[in-house]
Every structure is written in structure tokens, then in C-alpha cells.
Amino acid sequence: MPTIEVPKFLPQVEAPKIELKVATVDEKVPAHILVSSQWRSDEDEILKAKIKEYGTQSWVIIAKYLPGRLGRQCRERWHNVLDPSIVRREWTREEDLFILE
User: Fold this and answer.
1) What is the pLDDT along the chain (101 residues), one digit of tens a residue?
2) For the domain that residue 47 is a member of, what is the CATH number?
């Protein structure tokens, strides 16, 4: 790869320093700080504990205990994966027929 000379008349600029901090309840978390990876088991345990404490209507508050997660992510994780009322079994023949009707 060839080297390119930077003209002397261009100003020499240092790269900006980036400072990260945990958002407070009133602050929005920038999208580039959000976690988009798979949920870890420790996050699931925190989520379950906070749902016991706050219920299933305070997702923004619960998300504050999970840095990088949004209330929407917490709600979806609970309702789609962790909620103990989710029935995980094979569909019955009657259920299959009901859907096909």
C-alpha cells in the first residue's frame, strides 16, 4: 500500500477522546452504547429479580439495572423467553386443526 504525504498546510488534528458513562434514569443511552449481543444468564437473573420487585409495567426502570439494555428489550425478553407462564410443549392435534381452520 503506497504512503500518502499529508500537505503541510493542513492542520494537524488529534483524534477526539471518547468518554463513556452509565446513563441515569433521566438520560437516554446513545444507540452505539446499546448491547445487541445475546442475553447472558446473569442478565436474565437480574431481569427476573427486578420484575419481582417492580412488576411487568416498569420496563424503563428495570432496564436501568441492565446497562446497555432498553426497556423494550427487557419487555421482549420477559414475554418471549423468561415468563414462566409460557407453555413449551408440542402442539396438540386439536390445536393444529384449529389453526388450519
Assistant:
1) 566 665 666 566 666 665 555 555 555 656 556 666 899 999 999 999 999 999 999 999 999 999 889 999 999 999 999 999 998 889 899 999 999 98
2) 1.10.10.60
Give the C-alpha separation, 60 to 64, whole Å: 7
- Structural domain range at position 60: 38-83
Say if residues 70 and 63 touch (Cβ distance below 8 Å). Answer: yes
- Single-letter amino acid, residue 44: D
Maximum distance among all alpha carbons in the chain? 79
Judge if pTM exceeds 0.85: no
* Residue 60 belongs to a domain: yes
The one-letter code for the residue type at 83 is D
Residues 6+ apart with CB under 8 A from 74: 47, 59, 62, 63, 66
